[in-house]
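Appendix B. Chain record.
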Amino acid sequence: MSFKDLGLIKPLLKAIDAQGYDEPTFVQEKTIPLVLEKKDVVASAQTGTGKTAAFALPILQLLFDKQDASKRQKKIRALVVSPTRELASQINENFKNYGQFTNLRSAVIFGGTSIEPQIDILKKGVDILVATPGRLLDLHKQDYINLDYIDILVLDEADLMLDMGFIDDVKKIERLCPDEKQTLLFSATIPYKVEQLANTILKDPERIDVTPKASIANDISQVLYYVPKRNKIQLCLHLLRNTVKGNVLIFRRTKFGVTKLENRLLENGYKVDSIHGDKTQSDRQTALNKFKNGYVNILVATDVAARGIDIDELDTVMNFDLPNVPETYVHRIGRTGRAGNIGIAYSLCSADEKNYIKSIQEFIGVQIPVEAEHPFPLDPKAKPTVHKKKGSKHKKGRKGSGSKKKKKRWY
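Structure tokens predicted for this chain:
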């Protein structure tokens, strides 16, 4: 199937071609026709599946078809609510790329940065607004944002918004929009809270499930280390010195934990930076750019700060702290082993996290191979069972090097 087969107009097809994309992804193939038919949609889709284009392209077409020929000030007709600044910025960039051959105008607003430039942009008028909940409600309260003309409301990464405590804000934003509107909800997973929200604010939505929640790419090797909590930093340093290669994304549960590990790695001479919720948007973007461009090869992050960040050719993910939600584990390690590359995920499990590992292994349906030979065993006297993963040699490299063209990733 081609994008032309989806009924997209020439300005959008031209923009898609300029971006170098040939065929729609599964979520785009299923979602775009439904949005063009003005139906509400609930889609389970993670970053990298092309979900942003799945709603951005049909929104641009619907607004293009309806736009007023007069030159009066534009009114916000599509609103995309996103949980983090990074995600909001990426979404707005996609709207600009896909809408470059239309005269539709998009803008992004978020907290943690000066409000005045955002007010200036809003005063000029925009068709599409991408916003984080707090800054959106703040500017609405100050009468800089009018939601009375919203035709389409998009809630992106809904599960993360609820995890971050935005449920009341999201409901308030929905009530501020007109009753007669089209609503699209996208979420990496659809837990009970998201299901409840969808049932509350969407009208007879069409449902799309892009991938099984527990799927792990075949190109990802997993290794589990049992270690006392007090020795986790020492084991992390040991692995970085002797085992781990390439660029590494390390997950910690808290902002304090991120800072503590970053400082220890800096003390040991590693090129490292970090992202977490207390950092400004500018600092977070700078850290990410340094990692992507190779100025640092280790990035330490919390789940909230790292959600939605797409990094090509990520060699290694390390779960310094194990997540208590199995879906989060799948989401974390899915950042490596992409685009034909071989990735590896290391997990450090202390005694109090054994139940997390049990839940994760039940969820993904496999036993994660245990590496018993290391300097900091959880129980030096015990001989833990080692689960050998069939065919896994923990080798890194490219599959089918030379013959396989690397596909450009969607956002």
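Further analysis of this model is presented in Appendix C.
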